[in-house]
Structure formats: C-alpha cells, structure tokens
Design a protein that fits this description.
Largest sheet of chain B: 8 strands, mixed
Strand content of chain B: 15-25%
Structural class of chain A: mainly alpha
Order of helices and strands of chain B: EEEHEEHEHHHHEHEHEEHHHEE
CATH architecture of the largest domain in chain A: Orthogonal Bundle
Shape of chain B: globular
Number of strands of chain B: 12
CATH superfamily of the largest domain in chain A: MetI-like
Structural class of chain B: alpha/beta
CATH class of the largest domain in chain B: Alpha Beta
Number of strands of chain A: 0
Oligomer: heterodimer
Number of helices of chain A: 13
CATH class of the largest domain in chain A: Mainly Alpha
Number of domains of chain A: 2
Radius of gyration of chain A: 30 Å
CATH topology of the largest domain in chain B: Rossmann fold
Radius of gyration of chain B: 21 Å
CATH architecture of the largest domain in chain B: 3-Layer(aba) Sandwich
Distance between the termini of chain A: 41 Å
Order of helices and strands of chain A: HHHHHHHHHHHHH
Largest interface: A-B, 24 and 34 residues
C-alpha cells in the first residue's frame, strides 16, 4: 500500500482508528475530570489517602475487632474474670469456656479480654503522656535552643543512661498496681524518643522562610510555636505515637509477666502468659492465646501508624488514592494496547502505519517512577 | 514637602562573625513619604535585604545595629518587642522573595491570610476573616478565590503563590510594604503580572512601598525614587528619571550599561568587571574603585561622601564633576 492509497484505507484500519480515538477520548475525559475537580479539604484528602492504604485499613479494622472482642465479648460470657470454679481447672477450649480455664478454674476468655483492655488502655495512656511531655520538651529545645536545648538534651541523656529495667522494676513494683501509675512510669522512660524527633523537626522547619514570614506578619514566639511549628510536627509524631503504643504494650506485658506490673486478681496479657508458663508442655494453647493477642495488637497499631503517616502528610502525592489507582490503570491499559499495536496516543502514525513502512513496531516505555 | 512615613538616619548594620565584624549596611539615610515607591537596587550582598530586615527587626541574633528608624512617630529600633510585633504585619508588611518557601505547607492559603488578620485583631470572627481573605485573593487576581482559598500552597503555581503572598501582606492595609525581590523567583512571563498586581493593590490600600530588587527594568516601570547600593553603602539616590537619564555615579551608569537592550542597538553586553569587595574589614576609599573605569588616586585615599547634586538627587563619587555629560555615556 502506498501513501496515495491511504485515504481509502480498509475497514481494518478504520476500526483500529475508531478504537484508538475511543481510548484517547477516555483518557482525555479522565484528564479533564482531574482538572475540573473541586479542591478537596485536607481532612477529605487525608481520609482518602488513609482509605487507599491497605495495611492501614487492615490495622484499623483489626483494632476495631479487638476492641469489640475485649469490651463486648465478656458481656456475652456468663463468667467474670475472678470467678473460680475449682472443678473446671485447666480445661481446654470449649463452647462453654472459649479459651479454656486456668489453673484455678477462671474463664480464660474473660481474663484475656480483661488483659487486652488493660494492655490497650496502658498503651494509649502511656503513649499519650509520653507524647505530650516529649513534644513539649522537644519544641522548647528546638525552638529556643541554647540553654533550653542543653537542658532538655541533658535530661534526655540522663533518662537514656538510666538502666531502664531496674527503674521499671522499682517503680512499676511500687506504682504498677494502678493502671495510671504504671502508664506514667512507662511514659517517664519513653518520652525521650518523641522529644528527639520533635526537636529535629522543629530545628529543620524553624529556619524555613515561612516562619520568618509569620514573624514578619506580627506573630509572637508562642503563636509561631503553636500555630506554625506544631502542625508541621503532627505527621512525624503520629507515627512515633503508634510505634510507642506498640512498645508500651510490649513493655507492660513484659513487666506484668515478671510480676512487676498488674497485680492479681487483675489480668494483663503478660500475667496470663506467666500463669500458663508452667503448663506449657501439657497445654501450650494457654500460653499461645495471650501471646498471639499481644502480637495482634502491636501489629495492628503499627500498621495504623504507617497509614497515618502517609495520610497526614500534607505534601504527600495522591498516590494510592482510588483516583490515582484508576489513572495508573488507565495508563497501563493504554501501554498494553500500544504494545499490541494500537495507536492509542493518536499521532496518526502508529504501529499499523509503521508495519506498512516496514519499521520495527513501537513499544510503550515504562517510567521508572512508581 | 509631606512628612515622611519612614525616616532612616545613620543606620549601620553589622554581623559578628568569627573573622570579625561584617559591615552589611553603612550609614544609610533615606525617607519614604506616604504612598511613594522607593526602589532599592544593587548587586547581591550590597545590603538591600539587610537594611529591610533591620527595619523590621527580623535580623539574626549576631547582628549589631546603630542608628534611628522613625516610622509614623515611632522609633522602630527602640520599640518594646510587643509593640514591634503589633507594627509588623499591620503597619509594615513584607513580601518575600521566594513564594515557594514563604508559605506554611500545612495551612491552606485562606487560613494563612486569616491568621495574619487575626494576629492583629482577634475580635474579627473566623468566618469574617475568611470571607475577607477570599476578597483579598480576588483582589490580587486569584481565579475562583472561594475554592482556591481552601487549597494548600503546593497546589498553587509560583505566580499564584506570590499573588497570595501579596494578599497576605495587604490583609491589614499596611502603610508600608516591603517587597524583597518579589519577582526574582518567578517566571519572566509572570513577573509583569505580579508587578501589575502590586501596583493595583497599592492603588487600593494607598500603601507606600520599598521595592528591593536587582532588576533595573522593574524599577523603571514601578518606582518613584531609586536608591542604588553598593558594598553596604548608598551610591546614588534620586528620582527614577534622574537615575536612569542623568545618573551622576559611575556605578549606576555601569549597572545601566549591563542591561540587555531589546532594540538591538547594543550588540554586546557590558558587564562590570570584577566582583564586589568583601565586607569584612573594608579598606578606606571608594568600594567601587577597583572596578571603576574612572578611578583616580583620591578614590583609594578617602571614602567619598554622599553629595547632593540637586534637590533630592545625591551621589557618592569624587568625580561627579568629571562625569561625561548626559547622553554621551549611554551611546
């Protein structure tokens, strides 16, 4: 076929052109929709990014289920956490006792739920207190520098030098009977990481021009700290909080396992493991159940933190949002069509024409960026 | 003559460094009357921005300042911090060079304008401040201001961001705007638009403006008076026509020579040879001497004084009288 023949191309090419323009039109429509889109609020975008984050969703749903199990579950059960049934000692899981019973005949499902509640509560409380204090200290150190920085750094180093396990043993033993006491002892040891992270972020953003601009518009130090600096810290801190919740729960269960935290008859996931450890040969399930729940809680919390970090970053690109996924799918589909020999991009000189001219067929280039 | 709004007398700004004191602004004197545009022109490091920051007292802690800055009956260098904060952003507002970095990435543009309004008047309700910020965005030519106000700085283009910066600066109807190279970071095609916006906005608010720039083209169109700085000192100051057509200073003339010419009459650019001197331990004599085609022995022996050539036109040069007559040099 020569160039002269081209105006009267056969139906084969016509069909191809028709298909091509269809795809191109689809792309164009998608593009136009993207442009004319109304600006979404930050909260909306954060929510969408969060929803697009599969692990975060798994973490959130998992936590929700655990909360339901721990809070609502015991209501269904007819047993209470300290009710002993001497005849039902060391029972395996059954319809009556879902997780079995312990050495003195207490229902392990109810006790696991109570332990889970306890661990979650302490985790949140200790992480909250540590974050509050750590953020305050980090902000002071980063913003004012000089003497403040030296003082906070000294304090951080002091806390880090203190042998944690000894301090915890002493104080957790003294205050550990109450959840709040135990949480505060843990917070007192764990705020340092937050303080360092916050200090670092503040140091890097306080030299930004927008802080100077805020000053030039008449904002006071106080206002600059609270309105301009702290919001920039939220993303970094949100991640730290979740990591902290995880490590607090691990620490708390460890302490309780060692008998330094929760006191009987109350249960923590740690004491449940401790209670069962003697029977591990006969009844490994009693050790495993609370252990699995510890892992589940910490895992879910960490997943959630990952998602929060991505969602709360205002500079984040909208990757992983449903829209972005659709856009990427459309692009990938077009690339495949090109590889199959369709002139998707509508240059008028596509693979079909190239075949005619005896040239090697084009293939769609893949970008390196994800 | 009208009472000046801003009057700077014998302002010196230095920075402590480990090698000694860096003299960043030396013996600066100037006035700005209400509604006037004063352009401050000079190479990088000539002390333009330092002067502006010193007026606002936004300098770093290793800065040494002497002199007087009278603004609207207040001595800005003596004001207690609290009162100085009230002046910043309300009476004197600043537009920064780089709109990419001068906005907080975690606030929507509207929120940032609201913030500037409410810093100074917390009695304004949030919704009132919001609708005012939408009006302001409209005024500076941001399309669809209602939606745009909800967007974040990274969703704005450079030109739009600078418009938003201007909106923020004029939010409290300041008497004086300090624009520190407002168009330097922008695309050439957008520069003219932004200057136009600045002009229109000043018509609205009747603010005076101190326009800091190294772009002489910008000055010609926008300024009433021009002040040329070199190596921390004022070299020449005068009306915009006096500077452009009757300059009495070799440095100003050299600057004008180095501008490309669009008519094509000038076939080659004439850059100023050499570099500006170090501002650390500056020697006696005219700072421009090593680069000046007219330098004589006297230039190395004593620092020339700023001499009034005509009312309102002053130049710092030993050879004012020997300069070629107007017109001859520009050929």
């Amino acid at each position: 076929m020569t160039a002269l023949d081209q105006p009267g191309t056969g139906s084969d090419v016509d069909r191809e052109v028709g298909e091509m323009s269809d795809t191109a039109a689809q792309l164009a429509v998608a593009d136009a929709e993207g442009l004319s889109e109304k600006p979404k609020s930050f909260g909306r975008l954060a929510w969408e990014r969060f929803l697009g984050h599969r692990l975060a969703l798994i973490g959130a749903v998992g936590l929700l289920l655990l909360v339901l199990l721990f809070w609502v579950g015991p209501m269904i059960s007819e047993y209470s956490f300290d009710e002993r049934n001497v005849r039902d000692r060391r029972l395996g899981p059954s319809l009556d006792h879902w997780f079995g019973t312990d050495a003195i005949g207490r229902d392990l499902f109810v006790r696991t739920a109570q332990g889970g509640r306890y661990s979650m509560f302490i985790g949140l409380l200790a992480a909250g207190a540590a974050t509050l204090f750590g953020t305050m200290m980090g902000t002071l150190a980063g913003f004012f520098g000089g003497v403040w920085d030296a003082m906070v750094n000294g304090l951080v180093n002091l806390v880090l030098t203190v042998p944690a396990i000894i301090v915890l043993s002493v104080f957790a033993n003294k205050f550990g009977a109450s959840a709040i006491g135990l949480a505060l002892v843990l917070a007192g040891l764990l705020w340092t990481r937050i303080a360092r992270v916050v200090r670092g972020v503040i140091l890097s953003i306080k030299e930004q021009e927008y802080i100077m601009a805020a000053r030039a518009s008449g904002a006071s130090n106080f206002r600059i700290m609270f309105r301009h600096l702290l919001p920039n810290v939220v993303g970094a801190v949100a991640v730290e909080i979740t990591l902290l919740v995880g490590s607090v729960i691990v620490l708390e269960t460890t302490l309780s396992f060692l008998g330094l935290g929760v006191k009987p008859p109350n249960a923590s996931l740690g004491t449940l493991v401790a209670d069962a450890k003697g029977d591990i040969d006969d009844d490994p399930i009693r050790v495993l159940t609370p252990g699995i729940f510890i892992v589940l809680i910490v895992l879910c919390v960490n997943f959630l933190g990952d998602g929060l970090r991505d969602a709360l970053d205002p500079r984040a690109k909208p990757i992983d949002t449903p829209d972005a996924k659709k856009a990427n799918k459309a692009a990938e589909k077009a690339r495949k069509q090109i590889d199959k020999g369709e002139d998707v991009l509508g240059s008028g000189y596509g693979p079909a024409q190239q075949r005619e001219a005896g040239e090697a067929p084009v293939e769609a280039r893949r970008t390196e960026q994800p | 003559m009208t009472e000046p709004l801003l009057s700077v007398r014998n302002l010196n700004v230095g920075f402590g460094s480990k090698a000694g004191i860096v003299q960043a602004a030396t013996d600066i004197n100037f006035d700005i009357v209400p509604g006037e545009v004063l352009a401050v022109v000079g190479e990088s490091g000539s002390g333009k921005s330092v002067t502006a920051l010193a007026l606002m007292r936004l300098h770093p802690s290793n800065t040494i300042i002497t002199g007087d800055v009278m603004f609207d009956g207040m001595d800005l260098l003596e004001l207690p911090d609290r009162e100085m904060r009230a002046v910043r952003g309300r009476d004197v507002a600043m537009i920064f060079q780089d709109p990419m970095t001068a906005m907080n990435p975690v606030f929507s543009v509207g929120d940032q304008i609201v913030e500037t309004i409410r810093v100074h008047d917390s009695s304004v309700s949030k919704s009132d401040a919001w609708s005012r910020s939408v009006d302001l965005l409209q005024l500076v030519g941001v399309p669809e201001p209602k939606q745009r106000a909800k967007q974040y700085p990274h969703e704005y283009s450079g030109g739009m961001r600078q418009r938003a910066m201007i909106a923020m600066a004029i939010a409290n109807q300041p008497k004086l705007l300090i624009a520190d190279e407002p168009t330097t970071a922008l695309d050439v095609t957008v520069q003219a638009q932004v200057m136009e916006v600045l002009h229109d906005v000043r018509e609205e608010t009747r603010s005076a403006m101190m326009l800091i720039t190294h772009d002489l083209g910008l000055v010609a169109g926008a300024a009433d008076r021009v002040q040329v700085m070199y190596a921390s000192r004022l070299m020449e100051s005068g009306g915009v026509d006096e500077i452009f057509y009757e300059s009495k200073n070799p440095y100003t003339r050299a600057l004008l020579e180095s501008i490309p010419d669009l008519d094509g009459t000038k076939t080659e650019l004439e850059p100023i040879p050499g570099n500006p001197p170090s501002l650390l331990n500056t020697p006696v004599g005219c700072a421009f001497r090593p680069r000046c085609s007219m330098a004589i022995d006297q230039c190395g022996e004593e620092t020339p004084k700023l001499v009034e050539v005509r009312d309102g036109h002053a130049s710092r040069c030993h050879r004012i009288d020997d300069l070629a007559p107007v017109g001859a040099w520009s050929e």
